[in-house]
Specification:
heterodimer, A: 76 residues, mainly alpha, Non-ribosomal Peptide Synthetase Peptidyl Carrier Protein, Chain A, 4 helices, globular, B: 565 residues, Rossmann fold, GMP Synthetase, Chain A, domain 3, five-stranded mixed beta sheet, five-stranded antiparallel beta sheet, 17 helices, 27 strands
């Protein structure tokens, strides 16, 4: 389940008013989430959750649900 | 005895004969053992693949588009095309965001402009591209899937490869690069064997490159910096290449540092944004076992070079043994094969602070202690075989410290844009290439400060604003011809981002929401991401004397209302 906090962070970074973001949603299904904005999205998520994500951890993410679980696991 | 012609293949053959068991290419993938191509195995695989291609009908002089993701057998495939005397053209593999119709239209446009004969690709693209083959006027003879079989057997070596190429000459075309654009409007730059070899030899001398070096690169090979500076430089000079996957690198930029550390890499080319990305995204704990002492040149090129980007990169990595003098810069373009200027090895590029106001009027005045000054990083001095002149708007040559257009003459110059004499005549005059880039010379070093064309450069990739404006014109509610796209520098990312101002005939929050969504989708379909979209009422845009909306004036107008964040 994608939290409001994560969803808000992604929408704000990509300047989207709203978008249906679910566990199985992938980055390429969200407007504006290309490889460069990917960096921006991750950095803003890191700020929102006060965590840092390693490159290999990010590389392995398959969808937004996995991103949610990763930040939750770090955030405690 | 017949003289061996000066071609890329014959140079590779000579390198393979001299170094059969040495690494030529090291194919790198995250958390996997690298796949190492020695020269003899690489040449053997290239010969085996050449037989496959010839069997499928590929002949000398035909253009072969290679559309293949990061793959260990890409390298011998590219060389196989060259061994037949055919012309390789590396194209970007479509990401899942690109609409299949737009991708197909792009390939068809390229086929019309560039005269593509064959598409060498993966079976996954069969369905997307098959309709292009039967389209009236298509030049494409067929699709070939050369890497579907082989794999480890292909990499085993053992086949005969010691055969020189006699039916190709140095004046024959050896590769085709697409200079910019996203939707089939790309300009196709054809280069001869002589141009590429002249360039690589001159450029290697300017950076003291030799067999003691090792190139580490994540750059895509459809980009001139990846193709020429990393891939061709490596093969022509027998410098091992460590090639990473661009998609893996952008998610995990520490991979390049890991590769440099483990393989003792010495040379790397990066667009400016990569300096920011490395500094911002790599965690200190990822650097625990990394040593960057071997890295002797990290060359900032393909985007405007920013002093602050280089500084933050150095601050991030200095504790890992990075030598400050490894920071370097160059100015390059596909039309001259690659580099025009390069900063000297072992010294940082010259940096000067200049008065902004005077610079905007075309004069360079060096200042000290002025916080409003513009900090300019030099792209070095001309490399061997290249001449640069800086011209005013009347075509008169300017002295030092005056801003004008860079025009270039080189012994590695393209002959023109393929099938496009009108664009060729505009760009190439009396042997001088008119770059459209603006800058100045100061203490014999060259500085780029802007460009005449409205080209947007995002992460080192050139995008025509016209492509974006056309794509958005089809969105219902947008007023066709009343849209302007332009680039805006993003200091956080260290590169430009795309901004659009569009007049719309619709009002209301819901309608604007729909327009935004559809505009984003229309841009994504041509692989462009819009960072800021400003919707304005009809007749808001300022028109130029030609009646078209003026990009610069409208950009300034929108920023008077909405300051750049």
């Amino acid at each position: 389940m994608i939290s409001d906090k994560l969803k808000k962070s992604i929408l704000k970074t990509l300047e989207l008013e709203d978008w249906d973001i679910r566990d199985e949603t992938t980055a390429d299904q969200i407007p504006g989430w290309d490889s460069l904005n990917h960096v921006r999205v991750i950095m803003d998520v890191e700020k929102a959750y006060s965590v840092r994500l390693k490159g290999l951890e990010i590389l392995k993410l398959k969808n937004i649900g996995e991103l949610q679980r990763l930040v939750d696991s770090k955030h405690g | 005895m017949m003289q061996v012609p000066r071609t890329l293949w014959n140079r590779w053959l000579q390198n393979a004969q001299n170094n059969p068991d040495q690494d030529a290419v090291i194919h790198w993938a995250a958390e996997k053992d690298p796949i190492r191509w020695t020269w003899s195995r690489l040449m053997s695989a290239a010969c085996a693949l050449a037989e496959r291609l010839a069997g499928a009908g590929v002949q000398k002089g035909q253009v072969c588009a290679l559309i293949i993701r990061h793959h260990p057998d890409f390298y011998p495939l590219y060389m196989a095309v060259s061994s037949i005397g055919a012309v390789p053209a590396v194209l970007q593999y479509p990401n899942s965001r690109i609409h299949p119709d737009k991708f197909r239209q792009g390939i068809e446009g390229m086929s019309r402009h560039s005269g593509l004969d064959w598409i060498l690709t993966e079976k996954e693209l069969n369905e997307k591209l098959a309709p292009s083959l039967s389209r009236p006027g298509s030049t494409i003879r067929g699709m070939i899937f050369p890497l579907e079989t082989g794999g480890p057997a292909l990499r085993g070596g053992g086949g005969e490869w010691r055969r020189a190429q006699y039916d190709v000459n140095e004046s024959d075309e050896c590769l085709l690069q697409h200079s910019s654009g996203t939707t089939g409007l790309q300009k196709a730059v054809m280069l001869s064997h002589a141009a590429v070899l002249n360039h690589l030899d001159s450029y290697a001398r300017s950076i003291d490159a030799g067999t003691d070096d090792k190139i580490a690169s994540w750059l895509p090979l459809y980009h001139d910096m990846g193709l020429i500076a990393a891939f061709h430089m490596s093969l022509a000079l027998a410098i091992p290449l460590i090639q990473l996957d661009p998609f893996e690198w952008v998610a995990a930029p520490f991979l390049l540092l890991e590769a440099v550390s483990k393989e003792k890499g010495t040379l790397t080319w990066l667009p400016n944004f990569a300096f920011n990305l490395t500094a911002d995204k790599v965690l200190d704990e990822e650097l625990d076992h990394v040593s960057l002492k071997s890295w002797r040149m990290i060359i900032n090129c393909s985007e405007p070079v920013r002093h602050e980007s280089m500084e933050k990169f150095f601050r991030k990595l200095s504790s890992r043994g990075l030598d400050r003098h490894a920071l370097s810069s160059a100015y390059a373009m596909a039309e001259t094969t690659f580099a025009v200027t390069q900063s000297a090895p072992g010294s940082e590029p010259l940096v000067v602070s200049v008065d902004r106001e005077k610079l905007s009027k075309g004069a360079v005045s060096v200042v000290r202690g002025d916080s409003n000054a513009r900090v300019c990083v030099s792209s070095g001095k001309t490399i061997g075989g290249c001449e640069v002149r800086i011209l005013d708007k009347d075509g008169e040559e300017l002295p030092e410290d005056r801003v004008g257009e860079f025009v270039i003459r080189s012994d590695s110059m393209f002959r023109g844009y393929r099938n496009d004499p009108a664009q060729t005549d505009k760009a190439l005059k009396n042997g001088w290439y008119h770059s459209g880039d603006y800058g100045f010379r100061h203490r014999d070093a060259y500085f780029i400060v802007g460009r005449k064309k409205d080209m947007i450069i995002v992460g080192g990739n050139n995008i025509f604003p016209e492509d974006i404006e056309d794509a958005l014109s089809s969105v219902p509610g947008m007023i066709p011809g009343r849209i302007v796209a332009f680039g805006e520098f993003d200091p956080e990312l260290g590169t430009e981002q795309v901004c659009v101002i569009a007049e719309s005939g619709t009002a209301g929050a819901d309608e604007h929401k729909r327009l935004r969504r559809e505009a984003m989708a229309a841009a994504a379909a041509i692989d462009v991401t819009i960072r800021h979209l400003y919707l304005v009422p009809p007749r808001w845009l300022i028109k130029s004397s030609s009646g078209k909306p003026a990009r610069k004036a409208n950009r300034e107008r929108i920023h008077e209302i909405i300051p750049i964040v």
